[in-house]
Amino acid sequence: MPDDVTVEEEQTVTEAPAEAPAESPADEDDELVEEGEIAADYLEQLLDILDFDGDIDLDVEGGRAIVAIDGGEDLAKLVGQRGEVLDALQELTRLAVQQSTGDRSRLMLDVAGWRASRRTRLSGLGAEVAQRVAESGEKESLKPMTPFERKIVHDAVAKVDGVRSESEGAEPNRRVVVLPNA
């Protein structure tokens, strides 16, 4: 063997297990779009079974998939009184998405613009009550609401100086109470 040939020794390096890379916002949006598409397929099949007309729109907003069904005459039946049917349909749709993806879904479903309209009304109510409480100094309790509805009211109250809001009671009778700041 010639002298100028060297043998390199292999070094064994013990590496710590690599951490999972943080999910980028683009990856999260892709997953939410996939959730929306799964939900849209599920809802399209449901509309076909019911023989209801409706257009399905998908969006991603606030870290959740938003699916809206608009355009059909019979869609009010999918909302029900005070949105009870809509809430149940949303849960079923979330379960369909979870069954497909294996992950819990926070998807938001709106039918015939009911949630959007409800959000506008509740935001106005929250601002109005907050203003009254700020002027009178007297606390005011609202009717029981769903968590979705209470969040909208809390957000509206937070925009008014001199007042704060709390939720009190147990479901399904949990309500928002607007109080003057101490």
From TrEMBL:
Positions of the R3H domain: 116-182
Region (Disordered): 1-32, 163-182
UniProt-listed SUPFAM superfamilies: R3H domain
Biased composition (Acidic residues): 1-12
Biased composition (Basic and acidic residues): 163-174
Any one GO MF annotation of this record: RNA binding
Compositional bias per record (Low complexity), positions renumbered to this chain: 13-24
Top-rank taxon: Bacteria
CDD domains: KH-II_Jag, R3H_jag
InterPro entries xref list: Jag_KH, KH_dom-like_a/b, KhpB, R3H_dom, R3H_dom_sf, R3H_KhpB
Entry protein name: SpoIIIJ-associated protein
Native organism: Tsukamurella tyrosinosolvens
